[in-house]
Structure formats: C-alpha cells, structure tokens
Amino acid sequence: MTHILIVGGGYVGMYTAIRLQRKLRAGEARVTVVDPQPNMTYQPFLPEAAAGSIEPRHVVVPLRRVLPKCTVVTGKVTSVDHERKVATVVPAEGLPTSMPYDILVMAAGSVSRTLPIPGLAESGIGFATVGEAIYLRNHVLSRLDVASSTPERKERALTFVVVGGGYAGVEVFGELEDMARYALRVHKGLSAADMKWVLVEAADRILPEVSPAMSDYTIRRLTDRGMQVRLNTKLVSMAGGRVELSDGTCFEADTVVWTAGVKANPLAMRSGMPIDFRGRLICTETLQARGLQGVWGAGDSAAVPDLTGLGALCTPSAQHAVRQAKVLADNIIATLRGGKIKPYKHKHVGSVASLGLHKGVAQVYGIRLRGWPAWLMHRAYHWSRVPTAGRKLRVLVDWLTVLLSRREIVSLGQIQDPRRDWEVVVRETTHSLKGNTRTQ
Ligand SMILES: Cc1cc2nc3c(=O)[nH]c(=O)nc-3n(C[C@H](O)[C@H](O)[C@H](O)COP(=O)(O)OP(=O)(O)OC[C@H]3O[C@@H](n4cnc5c(N)ncnc54)[C@H](O)[C@@H]3O)c2cc1C
User: Which atom of ligand 1 is nearest to the CA of 47?
Assistant: First the structure.
C-alpha cells in the first residue's frame, strides 16, 4: 500500500492528514504524521493564552484524537534521502529509525530567525509555542511579585521588551501589558506608570500586513497606554540583562521576547532539496516540490507562487497554510487515482490583531476596523477557525469565564521548575540523616 509520510503536524500537516483520512478509500494508502509535539498548536491564540484569556491546553489539538485513521509518531525527522525514499526519524526517546515512504509532504513550518546578539540565547525567549506562552504568563506575573517585594529590583523587573513588530510581536506586546496592568491592582505601591514596555522594530513601521494608516493607529493606541514603540531600531545586546539598542539607549530588563521574523525549517536544505534564498522548499503552484517526483510542500516551509498577483510568493500565514493543505490533499489523491491536479490560488483576505482585552485592529476585505469592533472581529474570526468543535466550546467557556468573573492573575512560577523544591527537600533530608548517623 502507498505510504504517505507527512513531516510536521501543524497547520499544513494536520489539515492535510485530516482530509486524506476522510477521502482515501480503504487500502488506497496509509498515512503517517511525524511531529516532535503530539499536538497541533493554534498559534493565533497564543497571545491570548499568554494573557490568561484562554487556557493554554485549549489552543492545542491532540493529533492522535483528530487523526484516528493515521499513524502519529512523536519524533523529529532529521533528514530525508529522497533518492532512496527514506526519512530518518529520531523518536522522543530511543534510537533514530529509517522510515521508507512513497509520497512525502514537507510541512515542518518555520523556526525563529535570530541574530548573534550577545545574551539573546541565554536570556531571551521566542514566542511560537504553547510552552513559551505559559512561561511568559508566569514570568511576567512573577516580575510583578519581585517588584512588589524587592524595591531595588523594581525597575528591572518591570521592564519588558518585545523585539519585532509583526502580528505575533504586536499582539504579545499588547496582550501581556494589558494583563500586567490588570494584575497590578493587587500590588499595593505599584502602578502602571512603574512599568516600562518597549517594542523594538528595525523597519520604519509595524504590522506590515495592514495599511500604513492602520499601523500608525496601532502605534498611537499603544503609546496612549504609555508603551514605547521604537521604529528603525535594533537590539544590539542584552548581555547580563542589560539591553542596548541601536539608537544608543541602554536599560536593564528581565524580559526580552524575540519575535523578529521566522525562517523556513532547515530540513529541506539539510536534505539537499531545491530551496529558495530563504531556505524554503521551492514548490510549483500545484504544491509539488520542483523537480522532485512524489514530494509535496506547503505552509511556512514552502515557497509557493502567489497566483493572485498580490506578491511573487504566498506569505507565511495560517490563512495560506490551511487552504494549501486542502489543495495538497486533493492533489495527492488525484495523483493516486490518475486524476487532474489543481493549482493553489487564494487571495489574502487581510489581518486581525488583538492589542489586549477589548482592543484591536483589523483590515479584512479592505474594511478597516479599530478598537472594540476590531477586537470582536479578531475573536469571531479565530474562534470560527480554531480546529474541532470541542476546542471551540472550551475557548468560548474560557472567554465567558473571564467576562463574568475577574481575570485570573495567579502566577504559577513553580511550574517553570517544579522539581527544585523537591530536590532541596531530598538533599536536606539526606544531609541531616548523614549528620544524625555521625552523631550517634
Ligand atoms: C504567535 C503567532 C501568532 C500568529 N498569528 C497568526 C494570525 O493571526 N494569522 C495568520 O494567518 N497566521 C498567524 N501566525 C502564523 C501561522 O501560525 C503560521 O503561518 C502557520 O502555523 C504555518 O503553518 P505550517 O503548517 O507551515 O507550520 P506550523 O503550524 O508551525 O507546523 C509545523 C509543524 O512541524 C513540526 N516540526 C518542526 N520540525 C520538524 C521536524 N524536523 N520533523 C517533524 N516535524 C517537525 C512542528 O512541531 C510543527 O508542529 C501566527 C504565528 C505565531 C507564532
């Protein structure tokens, strides 16, 4: 039986597999999805998860639950030998294995595009996973506790930097500040004026997906809240928590979030496949890898021509990834059955971004919305898009809970390092037992 191997269980991988399992006839092909994570992450909801408006577990979709007819392998594909049609899979635990395939779908998405900035690896954090969202929520709330309890650490603890003004950066900037501002209510002696929020963007504008007017509006709304937006500025160093910007500004900060762009997952490059200047697998408009029989690609890791003429290539976005997955699955089935394959064509409908509770900016089908209406549109759009009815229900209940009761401001800092207290107790007990034995 034909074996279809899907590398990555994110937007493209999961939606392709869902469609294949629904449309494939019995005995026609079997499908394996390999991903280091057992879940697909609905990334547009990560900023709300970080801000506590949505429970983090509700922004991920368990792959094994939605793909009962596929084989899900929790592991990482480290290389592909397409001449032999074999992928090397490193499982979560255990030795690497060789996985033969007939058809390969490259859907490993993107990775953060970083720079060799002193201190970034040690003290910075990205924002693309649910783990990072959980970490940031606890971290930001714990900084308020530190500022309350240790006055000499206040300034540094309450300084938060986000690098990168795309939608991920702007949303996490707006949402986290909104949460921290709310949480400050219970911190006697601290006020919003004590916090310093700095968004650093190398270009001369933020949110390149919306019009310059909407970008300016977003900056005005953020600066009205006392937040700083520094355009044409780069992060130069953050060694030892001392942030240095290219405009000469220096200050100390405990929190630096890096959202300054993404680049294609290096798997295609490592496997000697045809890639473009950004490392993306070069694909045709029918989502086939150029010059490679039986290899398909879509999403952030693929360079797919934009047939609408809006740009040369489709932008890395969930909007394209979901729709490409549908065409990709249909084309694979058409190939298996000797049918006709279709080109991918979708006109980007626009962008919606949340800037905190009841605040937002949206530009969809040319319509521009601001404030409350934009925020509502953001929620309505993403709610309609989050996969599975179960997730939709859970997200709705989360929102209603926040609406009807007060926002949750518990900092579960312990979950960042849950074994620390345990290890201390065990060490102390061992130490005192040894001491007792000696004195007896
Ligand atoms: C915070 C944030 C907010 C966003 N908001 C929006 C938004 O509002 N609108 C929008 O259109 N887009 C948004 N995006 C972008 C959108 O999420 C991506 O464009 C989309 O996820 C791309 O889909 P993909 O399938 O290519 O990659 P992904 O969904 O990232 O999936 C890639 C999968 O591959 C897996 N993988 C990686 N390496 C390997 C390997 N070696 N072997 C096997 N598996 C591997 C990963 O674990 C992951 O599950 C946002 C992104 C972020 C980070």
Answer: 1
